Amino acid sequence: MTQSPRDPYDILGVASNATIEEIKQSFRRNAAFYHPDRNPSHDAAERFRSIKEAYDLLSDETRREAFDLKRQKQLLDDPDAVARTIWRTYLSGISA
C-alpha cells in the first residue's frame, strides 16, 4: 500500500473500532460514489484508489492489527505530532 497522508479509518469514514461489516458497507458506499466511471470529478480516480487501499488494509485482519499497533505506538512516541495531525484534519473538515 502506498503511504497515505490520511488515516484509512478517516478515508472510509468509520471509527477505529468498526466491525468488518461497517467497513464493508462504508467501502461499498464510498467506492460507488467515487468510481471514476460514475463520478466526473477530476480527483475521483485518486479518491477511489485511496478508498480501495484503505479497505484492503482494514479488511485484512493481520494488516489491520499491525496498522493499529503502529498507530498506537506513534501516538505514544510522539503525541504532539499526532495531536497536530488530528486537529489539522478536524479543522480542514469543518472549513470545507
What does this structure look like?
Helix content is 73%, strand content 0%. The chain has 96 residues and is an all-alpha fold. It has two domains: 8-59, DnaJ domain (Helix Hairpins, Orthogonal Bundle); 61-96. The longest helix has 17 residues, at 61-77. It is globular.
Task: Give the secondary structure arrangement, pairings included.
Elements: H1 8-12, H2 20-34, H3 44-59, H4 61-77, H5 79-95
In CATH, the homologous superfamily of the largest domain goes by the name DnaJ domain
Low-pLDDT runs of 5+ residues are none
Element order: H for helix, E for strand: HHHHH
CATH level 1 class label of the largest domain: Mainly Alpha
What level of helicity do the residues show? over 70%
User: Average pLDDT, to the nearest integer?
Assistant: 87
- Percent of sequence in beta strands: under 5%
- Terminus-to-terminus distance: 27 Å
Gyration radius from CA atoms, angstroms: 14 Å
Number of strands: 0
Category from helices, strands and their pairing: mainly alpha
Describe the main β-sheet briefly: none
Count of discrete domains: 2
Which term fits the overall shape? globular
List the main descriptive attributes of the protein structure presented here:
2 domains; Helix Hairpins; mainly alpha; 96 residues; single chain; globular
